[in-house]
Amino acid sequence: MFWKRREPEWVTPPTTPCPDCGGQRVPAESAVEMFLISRRGGRKLTDLLALVCLDCGRVHLYAERLDKVRADT
Question: Are 31 and 64 in contact (CB under 8 A)?
């Protein structure tokens, strides 16, 4: 059987206000990789993108490559 090659699914974090306080969120430089563990027991390695709220300081993390997270699920 032939495997269909998937194109990378890059994520663009939303530019919406902070859901906690309504403040402005800005992208933050990060050098973070994380294993995301699915409920089925699989582990997926992906880089993380971060948005930081300038008012309350909350950090929101987003998986950069959804295709890596969705693979084999």
Answer: no
Using the predicted structure, report yes or no on whether residue 73 has a pLDDT greater than 80: no
Cα 39 from chain centroid (whole Å): 17
pTM: 0.65
Alpha helices (runs of H) in 1-73, residue ranges in sequence order:
66-70
Domain-wise residue ranges, the chain: 1-73
Burial class (CB in 10 A: 0-12, 13-18, 19+), 11: middle
Q: Select from 7, 6, 13 the least CA-distant residue to 48.
A: 13
Section 66-71 average pLDDT: 74
Mean pLDDT for 37-62 is 82
> Which residues touch 20 (CB under 8 Å, ≥6 apart)?
53, 56, 58
C-beta separation of 49 from 68 below 8 A: no
